[in-house]
């Protein structure tokens, strides 16, 4: 089969190589999936660069989530069978940018019927992260104000949609006119172009000086630091990631005097600590997709041969919404 592999870490366009490799075989508790669509995530770029918290042995295949069709099941697998259309996270070092992938059967979830393969592949990590971040960590309530950074990206646009579904007023921060348009289409009530506007001033004006009740931050760096200037009394800042490349050092004295909470979110830990909650969140997301309330913003569907370029574009921050590889 064809599979993209990283033999030496570096920029995705240079590190990824399309190889011919043997088709993997499922072991006990595993399933072999024919990859129908593989969503590109920022962690794929970090994996190529050797800067992700997980560092699989070289060579490895990147691609952390996919929509696939069950081709074969290993021993001791129940509840799923050949032909089933599913979504799941990949099992590194055998990632999703390949024609086939082996994954644990325990993590496989039915693909929502309301979404096509590319949309289904993009529903999993970003939307689960948004669901747990907004509901379980921040306890977002109807009528509150939600500030979302990188609101036109895959993770941010998911948070915008989920915030609106929860009844919040959503303020989205983006970089550029094209991304502003995408954030509005995702449902943001107010959109701030950080290149020409001060989001702190906009948030204060939109909330009558009170500030944002919840801040959803996958960017870090200056986005986090400036968010502390416009978070509300008893507000919550959800730290999702650091796509800016800068990890901020929170001033805990500032959190104390302004009475706000800083909440970390590593969604992948829930698969170990509370897998039932992951499945419950998937059921809720499937229902929202069927209602048309949420729908992944897929801006590009690219063939297998263009996977390295696609990962590089996400790494460079030039994309809007999701880019999905179709093997």
UniProtKB/TrEMBL annotation:
One function term, GO molecular function aspect: zinc ion binding
Short name of any one Pfam family annotated for the protein: ADH_zinc_N
SUPFAM superfamilies: GroES-like (SSF50129), NAD(P)-binding Rossmann-fold domains (SSF51735)
PROSITE patterns per record: QOR_ZETA_CRYSTAL
InterPro entries: ADH-like_C, ADH-like_N, ER, GroES-like_sf, NAD(P)-bd_dom_sf, Quin_OxRdtase/zeta-crystal_CS, Zn-ADH-like_protein
Residue intervals of the Enoyl reductase (ER) domain: 11-325
Stretches for region Disordered: 1-24
Compositionally biased tracts (Basic and acidic residues): 1-20
Full protein name: NADPH2:quinone reductase
Organism from which the protein derives: Actinacidiphila yanglinensis
């Amino acid at each position: 089969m064809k599979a993209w592999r990283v033999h030496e870490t570096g920029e995705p366009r240079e590190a990824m190589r399309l190889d011919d490799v043997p088709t993997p075989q499922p072991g006990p508790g595993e399933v072999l999936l024919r990859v129908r669509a593989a969503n590109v995530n920022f962690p794929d770029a970090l994996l190529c660069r050797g800067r992700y918290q997980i560092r699989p042995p070289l060579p490895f295949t990147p691609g952390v989530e996919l929509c696939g069709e069950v081709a074969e099941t290993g021993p001791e697998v129940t509840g799923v069978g050949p032909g089933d259309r599913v979504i799941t996270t990949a099992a590194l070092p055998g990632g999703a940018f390949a024609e086939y992938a082996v994954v644990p059967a325990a993590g496989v979830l039915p693909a929502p019927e309301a979404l096509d393969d590319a949309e289904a592949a993009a529903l999993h990590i970003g939307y689960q992260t948004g669901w747990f971040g907004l509901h379980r960590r921040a306890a977002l309530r109807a009528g509150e104000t939600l500030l979302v950074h990188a609101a036109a990206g895959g993770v941010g646009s998911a948070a915008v949609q989920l915030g609106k579904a929860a009844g919040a007023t959503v303020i989205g921060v983006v970089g550029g006119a094209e991304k502003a348009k995408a954030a509005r289409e995702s449902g943001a009530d107010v959109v701030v172009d950080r290149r020409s506007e001060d989001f702190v001033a906009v948030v204060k004006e939109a909330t009558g000086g009170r500030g944002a009740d919840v801040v959803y931050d996958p960017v870090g760096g200056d986005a986090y630091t400036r968010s502390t200037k416009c978070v509300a009394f008893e507000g919550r800042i959800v730290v999702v990631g650091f796509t800016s490349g800068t990890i901020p050092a929170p001033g805990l004295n500032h959190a104390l005097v302004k009475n706000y909470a800083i909440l970390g979110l590593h969604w992948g830990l829930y698969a170990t600590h509370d897998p039932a909650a992951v499945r419950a969140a998937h059921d809720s997301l499937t229902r929202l997709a069927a209602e048309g309330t949420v729908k992944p913003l897929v801006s590009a569907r690219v063939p297998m041969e263009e996977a390295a370029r696609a990962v590089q574009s996400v790494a460079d921050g030039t994309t809007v919404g999701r880019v999905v590889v179709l093997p």
